[in-house]
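Worked Example 4.2. Consider the chain below.
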Amino acid sequence: MSNTYKKAGVDKEEGYQTVSKIKQAVAETHNDNVLNGLGSFGAFYQLSGYKNPVLVSGTDGVGTKLRIALDAKVYDTVGIDCFAMCANDILCHGAKPLFFLDYLACGKLDSNVAAEIVSGIAKACKETGTALIGGETAEMPGMYKVGDYDVAGFCVGVVERDEIIDGSKIKAGQAIVALPSSGFHSNGFSLVRSIFTDFQEEFEGKPLFETLLVPTKLYQKDIEAIQAVADVSGIAHITGGGLIENVPRILPKGLMAVIHKAAIQVPTVMQELAKRGNIAEHEMFGTFNMGVGMIVVVEQSNVEAVLKAVEGSALIGEITTGDDEIVLK
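Applying the procedure from the previous section yields the following structure tokens:
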């Protein structure tokens, strides 16, 4: 009997079923700028309505948060994470996401699992007016175990050249406002998983995995609300490395951020993690978002308007002169 690709571990028919199951969800994210559908070698997106457009791109994945999702058999929320991690990054430069592409790799493809993951991506795309215009599903026996998946994405957005936010307008005396996170988002899960080993245990009245799998918050609407009431000098997405590593990325030389820890509402699950794992405060702030998913830098005179524009936002610090980049007080 002759060998086949299926005998080698790759089931093309399951791939076809995956495309069939995601086709409708993907189509619902399209708009008039998308010029073709699934199945072409490349996806076409026309750019219109801009005077001097600059494309801004970002790519990211979900990390080992996927392990919890796979073990709990909850697949749709990690799709939202994948999109949000990319879209929130380009949002830091004032860019509105235009289109998104995903990459899904696995040991053995299950079209139902793949469709759930992509449905989460499509849901996030629809919420932000982003077109999901392409992707790749790779079945890779020998590289991944059966039941294992990896998810990554690539986002392209646009901003007018004179509206780019890059931190260059940040100056001493300006305020740092925190936008609340929805939890761990998609960072630090290797440490989380080393401390929390039973995801089925009850935490605050529900299985722990439900708290851990809350998807990364999308900040586009919050940023748009802030921009309607204030000029924004800088935006930082608080991902891996926490406030300690991410805030300095937007600061001009000679300026530093002074952060008041008492002003930050640290989620109870992060407090529990630190307690159980005997994790030092500096390590926590240098690994997790600590309840701050994004920060914006604005004039002190705009702080009140910003706090009213975004529920749960808080004034957590200010910009000063200095060479330390960031100080937590």
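The chain has a mean pLDDT of 95. The chain has two domains: 12-163, 175-328. Compare this with Example 4.1 before moving on.
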